[in-house]
Amino acid sequence: MKYWSRHSEAYEPPLPRRLVQSWLGLATVLGNLLCSISPAIAQSETHSKATAPADGKSVVCVEMQMGNHLYCFPKAALEIYQRSKLRQDVVAMSLMMPDLRLPAPEDNRRFFLGEMSRGMATTSIALTVHGPPISWDQAVRNRIKGGGPVPVEVPGPFGLVELVGGFPRSNPYESEFVAERDGFRFTIICGFGGVDGRPHSPGLVPTCRSEIPFRDLKVILRFPADHLDQWKKLHDDVISKIIAWTRD
C-alpha cells in the first residue's frame, strides 16, 4: 500500500478510500443523468391526457402540434412510433369500420393472429402538414394548361361522377370517381379489380383512397371499397372526429 510523499509521482489513497470515491463519482454521474432525462419524462407525461367523450369512457389522447394548430389524438388509434412525439409533419391512425370506433386490444390481437384483415376492417387516416390538396377542378385546369388529356365525366354509382379516359392509369384495375363535399370536388380512387369487383391478385383487399382539406392540413383516407356507398357519411364522420380532437 502506497502513501503520498513529497517524492512520490502521484498520491494513491488507501483502498477503502478509493472505493468510497468511486461510489461517490458513480452517484454523481447517475444523478446528472436523471436530471437530464426527467424533463423529457415530464414532457411525455404532460402531453398525454385523458378525455371523457359523450359515452362517458375515458380516452387517453396525445397532444401534438400540426401546422398552426394543436390536437389531442387518441393514443389507441395512433401508430406506436408516433405516441410520444409532440410535433408531427404526418400523423397516421386507424379506426374500426363501420362506426369509426377506436381499436380495442381484442381487435389488435385478431390482427396479429391473422384472424381479421386490417384492410377490410379499418379506415386509415393520415394527416399531413404539406398543404391542403388541390381540388379536381384545379387539377383539370392544370391539365388543360399543360396540354394534357382530360377525362370525361359520366354519371357513376352512389351519387359520384366516374372519370373515363384521360391519362392512361398506372393501375388498370383502378376506377376513379369525383365526389363533392362543401363545394370542394375531389377524387376517390378505388382498386376494385375486375368488372365484377373481384380482386385481380389473391389476398388483395379492394380499397379506396381520397384526399380532402381540413384547416391547413391534408387528410388522406383509405377505406374498404365495400363501403364506397357510404363515402359521404364516412368523410363527414372523419372530419367530425378530427374537429373533436382539435384543441385550438
Give a quick rundown of the structure.
The protein has 248 residues and is an alpha+beta fold. It has five helices and eleven strands, in the order αββββααβαββββββα.
Q: Which overall shape is indicated by the principal axes computed on the Cα atoms? A: globular
Number of strands: 11
H-E string: HEEEEHHEHEEEEEEH
Unreliable segments of 5+ consecutive residues: 1-11, 33-46
The proportion of residues in beta strands is 25-35%
Structural class: alpha+beta
Radius of gyration from CA coordinates: 28 Å
Q: Oligomerization state of this entry?
A: single chain
Give the % helix: 25-40%
What topology emerges from the helices and strands here?
Blueprint: H1 15-46, E1 48-51, E2 59-66, E3 69-74, E4 90-96, H2 105-113, H3 118-121, E5 122-128, H4 136-145, E6 152-155, E7 161-164, E8 175-181, E9 184-190, E10 207-214, E11 217-224, H5 231-244
Antiparallel strand pairs: 1-2, 2-3, 4-5, 5-11, 6-7, 7-8, 8-9, 9-10, 10-11
